[in-house]
Design a protein that fits this description.
By secondary structure, the chain is of the alpha+beta class. The protein is built from twelve helices and ten strands. It has a six-stranded mixed beta barrel with strand order 2-3-8-5-7-6. β6 and β7 form a beta hairpin. The protein is elongated.
């Protein structure tokens, strides 16, 4: 009790220079800790948003097959046996094509899925404009990434052309373009600029027609699991047991470079701000050193009354801890 009272007296009274130095030490610690907490909260929130946007679009595990995948009950059963944590399997068709609108041509990637599978990926809530509608056989519709509004000046209701170059024969160098007209029904924010700039979502039937595929042929499968953390081991198990014709990639591997960059930025930011806090700790140490120098007389009086070196050391140590405590909270 005596130590706490004396520390408080040292902090609030006595030499004015020492008091101001203590206040600056507290303020420096406050700035350092606040910067670390706020910055890490922002970065963690950004990382979580990026993970959600990637998983919503690619699923937890992506299963591909050399050539085209014929969707059968046997394949679905085998996958669910290997990964019983699978909540939903979404077959998709992937097609690279050209987007033509008002004389401009832009390279795009079309993603075709069954209409109900988009709901399992939570993509509908990312719609920023328009309606979630893929039309019918007479008026097929598409949903574009929101960057198409800026780069291609497209609006909801506009008619756009999708051009797919196809070889006349297998060994021919001549190409015959296949053109299909779509109506834009909406725009979607997929959370990444390169997705929003190139991705076009539509019904799997329209992409299968452009790719000359049957209704049971797909490019691959998107697996939604119960937990994103088990995606990596499940992808390894699928690769080991499905056979050499199949290839499974987890959501992190599918976007490894981008997600690794976000993780490294978080670590670097933590390191830089930690150095800032270390500097604040040195500021507290210098404040205590000045307090000792300015209070040689008081220390001498305490020693004359029988105070031990341990007591005096504890006195100033508690003072430093109090400065750090008030600065931290």
């Amino acid at each position: 009790m005596m130590k706490a009272w004396m520390v408080w007296r040292y902090l609030q009274s006595g030499n004015r220079f020492v008091t101001i130095s203590s206040l600056f030490a507290v303020f420096g610690m406050m700035v350092g800790v606040a910067s670390l907490v706020v910055s890490m909260s922002v970065v963690n929130g950004f990382e979580k948003a990026i993970h959600e946007s990637v998983i919503d679009f690619t699923g937890h595990v992506l299963v591909l097959k050399r050539g085209h995948l014929n969707l059968t009950k046997e394949i679905v059963t085998e996958i669910t046996d290997i990964a019983p944590e699978t909540k939903h399997i979404s077959p998709f068709v992937h097609l690279e094509a050209l987007f033509a609108f008002k004389g401009k041509v832009h390279g795009v990637v079309m993603r075709g899925q069954a209409r109900d599978s988009y709901a399992s990926q939570r993509l509908e809530h990312r719609l920023t404009e328009g309606t979630w509608d893929f039309g019918d056989q007479e008026t097929p519709k598409v949903i574009l990434g929101q960057e198409f509004k800026n780069t291609q000046k497209v609006k909801v209701g506009d008619k756009v052309r999708i051009v797919v170059p196809k070889a006349v024969t297998v060994s021919s160098y001549e190409f015959k373009p296949v053109v299909k007209v779509f109506t834009v029904s909406g725009f979607i924010d997929l959370g990444k600029f390169d997705y929003n700039e190139r991705i076009i979502l539509t019904d799997s039937k329209w992409v299968q027609d452009l790719s000359d595929l049957t209704r049971t042929q797909y490019s691959g499968l998107l697996l939604q699991l119960t937990n994103k953390d088990i995606a990596i081991p499940k992808a390894i198990q699928l690769n080991a047991r499905l056979g050499s014709q199949f290839y499974a990639k987890d959501w992190y591997q599918h976007n490894r470079n981008f997600l690794s960059a976000v993780t490294y930025e978080k670590y670097i930011l933590f390191l830089v701000l930690s150095v800032m806090i270390v500097a604040a700790c040195f500021n507290v140490s210098s404040s205590l050193f000045i307090a000792v120098l300015k209070r040689y007389n008081e220390i001498a009086i305490l020693k004359s009354f029988g105070a031990s070196k341990k007591f005096i050391l504890q006195l100033f140590s508690i003072q430093g801890l109090m400065i750090g405590f008030f600065g931290t909270i």
